[in-house]
Amino acid sequence: MSKVSLASPIWLIIEIVFVIYFSSMNEWLDDLETKGWTELKNFLSIEISRGLLEEMAQLQSRVDFQQASIGKDDNKQVNLTQRGDFIYWIDPKNCLPYASEYLKNLEQIISGLNRHFYLGIRDYECHYAHYPVGSFYKRHTDRHAKGSARRVSSVFYLNPNWKESEGGELVIYEASGKSSLIKPEMGTLALFLSELEHEVLPTLRERKSITGWMLTETIL
Questions:
Q1: What single string gives the DSSP state of each residue in the chain?
Q2: Chain-centroid distance, C-alpha 208
Q3: Whose CB has fewer CB within 10 Å in the chain, the N or C terminal residue?
Q4: What do you get for the CA distance between the two ends of the chain, in Å?
Q5: What is the DSSP secondary-structure string of 162-216?
Q6: Strand partners, 87
Q7: Helices 97-117 and 46-62, axial angle in degrees (round to 10)
Q8: CATH numbers and ranges of domains, the chain
Q9: CA 170 centroid distance within chain
Q10: Per DSSP, what are the bridge partners of residue 172?
Q11: Which residues contact residue 187 at a Cβ distance below 8 angstroms, ignoring those fewer than 6 apart?
């Protein structure tokens, strides 16, 4: 049997793929370290992204998504002047196939974060988020004032062909005072430190996503 030369085209292709992969990985890790946030476009294939959107539609036809609240424990309340989205929590042990695939990819992100930054992330939690036309989420942080296990926040968008005129962008306020916009386009994953202030601008079109938090404590 003839051996494949390390100079053959197939090995050159493999080498190029690895270079591109690790260069891209280093780029988003650098962004997270320097700015506190990063944006990964085309994080998943269009097939998986569309599958997630279809699964979310299936769920919405069968179950009621809850009006999202703000605050924690005894201070938890619905406040439509602050937040107007509807949510449904994802159970990693009992979720639909595309959701399971998404969570597996998210776990790879967590492994990378722990390996490079020693963040001590032990678990995560995610929910679907549906913003009806006209809804928003005013400026806030994801780490509660009385303490929180949330270390890194994530948002994966499920909205094909999003236009700038439709609003609904995620605004992230960096520690430097600079603010940045992320368009909620299908396939984009936004990652940011949970202590950073951020908001969702009013949306002129239904806006769907999977929002999550990477935690330093294990969910029982």
A1: -PPPPTTSHHHHHHHHHHHHHHHHHHHHHHHHHHHSEEEETT-S-HHHHHHHHHHHHHHHHHSPPEEP-BS-GGG-B--TTTB--EEEE--TTS--HHHHHHHHHHHHHHHHHHHHH-----EEEEEEEEE-TT--EEEE-SS-TT---EEEEEEEE--TT--GGGB--EEEE-TTS-EEEE---TT-EEEEETTSEEEE--BSS-EEEEEEEEESS---
A2: 12
A3: N
A4: 54
A5: --GGGB--EEEE-TTS-EEEE---TT-EEEEETTSEEEE--BSS-EEEEEEEEES
A6: 66, 129
A7: 120
A8: 36-215 (2.60.120.620)
A9: 11
A10: 180, 198
A11: 41, 42, 43, 44, 46, 49, 157
Cα 79 to its chain centre, rounded Å, is 23
Contact assessment for residue 153 and residue 213, using Cβ atoms and an 8 Å cutoff: yes
Contact residues for 61 (Cβ-Cβ < 8 A; gap 6+): none
Residue 188 phi, psi (nearest 5): -90, 135
Please calculate the CA angle 161-167-171 and round it to the nearest 5 degrees: 110
**pLDDT tens series, the chain, 220 aa:** 444 344 445 544 444 443 444 446 678 999 999 999 999 999 999 999 999 999 999 999 999 999 999 988 778 899 999 999 999 999 999 999 999 999 999 999 999 999 999 999 999 999 999 999 999 999 999 987 667 899 999 999 999 999 999 999 999 999 999 999 999 999 999 999 999 999 999 999 999 999 999 999 998 6
